[in-house]
Design goal:
heterodimer; A: mainly beta; 7-stranded mixed beta sheet; 4-stranded antiparallel beta sheet; about 50% strand; globular; B: 6-stranded mixed beta sheet
Chain lengths: ~110, ~110
Amino acid sequence: EAGVAQSPRYKIIEKRQSVAFWCNPISGHATLYWYQQILGQGPKLLIQFQNNGVVDDSQLPKDRFSAERLKGVDSTLKIQPAKLEDSAVYLCASSPGVSGNTIYFGEGSWLTVV
Amino acid sequence: RKEVEQDPGPFNVPEGATVAFNCTYSNSASQSFFWYRQDCRKEPKLLMSVYSSGNEDGRFTAQLNRASQYISLLIRDSKLSDSATYLCVVRVSGSARQLTFGSGTQLTVLP
């Protein structure tokens, strides 16, 4: 079974530029998550989708971050404009349901803002 | 105060040693508990769930103390392949929100 796919794997941008990350969850998984993991910290939830609706985006910095999940399958996370403190790994994850105890992560998109 | 707190380590232990990690959580409404493992530059993966009565999975034993709001993970007979960061994870009761992760405890098993 194919896992969670993410791209690009690595991205280096200058501050104030924009970047977009793409995620394709495991087939059939209704719930999709975007996490931010800063070096030395645990993953922090940015946004959670159930199908194509937002369940929780309380920790998403909405002035610069946006995410969408059109058609309830793949998703895009955008940062515009990027700040130095956005340097992190952006992990996409999926689970079969909204209360799934096991979530499956993709390999992550590594962002460096210089 | 962080919702989930862990000693960051690092823990450096010889092969064959027994090592234990603790984790505390602040929300008494937390209902579900897990340990995830994260290898260097890799994604987190579920290691095991933690049940109220405690549970084992091979060399790994997880315990939960609801009164003191802490969770533990014991690794017996450590292997080199156990070297990783161990993330303590909780879910709050009644919340559709996903899991809240601790910052992780780094373990290095030395030959």
